[in-house]
Model the fold of this input.
Amino acid sequence: MFNIVVVDSWRDFPTDDPTIKHHAVSGYYDEETDTAYYVKDTPRWVGFHEEKHAIEKHKDRPRNAIDSVRNEIEACLYSYEMAGGPRRLLRILISIYNDLTFRDYNVPPKRAIEMIRQVMFDENDVPEKWKEDYFELRKRISKW
Ligand SMILES: [Zn+2]
Done:
């Protein structure tokens, strides 16, 4: 049964895996116990973001890299609908990009940015501000 637990800090997430703190938004969903954790005083949308991962039974690391992008964008769209956030997506996009290219997968940078584009622009209709953030991400990556 799905539970939500509010914790004081991301250090209280019940995992030793540093990649789990991937969103930099203070939420963590534990598959085994079907429990979403989030840090107190974080915006309300963070809880909905984790709730969507829980509802859809998203895996932490799906076999196909692009599915991890789909899961994150899906959770963000849900929380946006339910609680109006995140209003900007840049931090989350950076963490998705990092997961794709060096943390969880070894996707080449160009392929990673294309996967994000595909999910955001071809498969979903995302808010205009998020599109701006996608272009900002692309600009930054070209300088890295
Ligand atoms: Zn997420």
